[in-house]
Amino acid sequence: MHEPTSAAPADSTPPQGPTLFDWEFATDPYPAYAWLREHSPVHRTKLPSGVEAWLVTRYADARQALADQRLSKNPAHHAEPAHAKGKTGIPGERKAELMTHLLNIDPPDHTRLRRLVSKAFTPRRVAEFAPRVQELTDHLIDRFASKGEADLIHEFAFPLPIYAICEMLGVPREDQDDFRDWAGMMIRHGGGPRGGVARSVKQMRTYLGELIHRKRDDLGNDLISDLIRASDHGDHLTEAEATAMAFILLFAGFETTVNLIGNGVHSLFMNPDQRIRLQDSLAAGESGLLETGVEELLRYDGPVELATWRFATEPLTLGDKDVAAGDPVLVVLAAADRDPGRFTDPDALDLSRTDNQHLGYGHGIHYCLGAPLARLEGQTALATLLTRLPDLELAIPPNELRWRGGLIMRGLRTLPVRFTPRNT
């Protein structure tokens, strides 16, 4: 006869999972992602839009999913008509006939279009653009340097990539403020009503179509002219493809850089020892820590929280879960890039980290085409801010900062700062 035991049997059921996608989560999602990595690394959840999707949070699974061609970028593979209802993808892109861009297509069309666009978006073009990025950066700082205070999002991090990508595309300067307004609508409505975004998308599409039509008769030394010229064995971009490509280069290229700069400055504020290291390195005329530092900021609190939508074209296994054909899959870059199974001390910011194959710009055939430009803008912005405004500091308590809602991007609404006023 067994003696009775006073202890209750151990409960093998994992604890209740965290609440996802509320405002508290948006402020600091990393504890929730740590729980998911540990207890439910491939996790089915209902998103705020009502769409059910799988979240992939471990690095190895994420890297596999990003390169798995059974996970299609084409919303036509979704089992539900959520895209047509505006619940997945970019609001308004279907009605604006902007679907044929790199974020929505698979090989062989993706291969063809990316090869054509890559000819116009070369590392050499980015390198040649570096002096202009520096001029834009200095010009924006000149506007507020004498005030001793600024909102770094709206006065600096936001306009810099907008003006940069407009100039690369060949948007005339007299029209660039229109682009700034349309892009501002996209950011302001992140996580909120999607109608404002859809209207801005429609306005951008109309303008870009007209600009491409005008440039056909007057090609210049800009990206849109190069898109028009681009050909591969006699295969040219159609006007619709060129319009969609110009749109996605702008849409995908500006908010990521806004968040890279904003999140990066915020991370340096929260880690003053790392900020001092970087400022000392810059003062010594060195660039190595700046280069590894921007990569670390991309890993630590990057601008893209979740990779864009993927849809299973056939039943497959991710981690220990069976994913059905038609299911949406969202790779959580922010979780994968803090996986202790891949990164040493992943919750620590280490600007000198060298073993840093982060997924901030994706992986596989959909790796971000504009990554070289974003890195250039991020490095230039941070180096110039820390050099010209060395005593830059947060102007409000950190707990008063608010993060934009939304599913894909991670960024601050505002970043109020103060510093010793300087004459320009």
Indicate the low-confidence ranges by residue numbers.
Answer: 1-13, 82-86, 189-194
Shape: globular
Number of helices: 15
Fraction of residues in helices?
Answer: 40-55%
Main sheet makeup: 5 strands, mixed
Order of helices and strands: HHEEHEHHEHHHHHEEHHHEEEEHHEE
Give the radius of gyration. Answer: 22 Å
The spatial strand order of the largest sheet comes to 1-2-10-7-3
Derived structural class: alpha+beta
Strand content: 5-15%
Give the tally of β-strands: 12
N-to-C span: 89 Å
User: How confident overall, as mean pLDDT?
Assistant: 86
Task: Write up this protein.
The relative contact order is 0.18. The N terminus is likely disordered. The chain is 46% helix and 9% strand. The strands form four sheets. Strands 1-2-10-7-3 form a five-stranded mixed sheet. Strands 4-12-11 form a three-stranded antiparallel sheet. A two-stranded antiparallel sheet has the order 5-6.
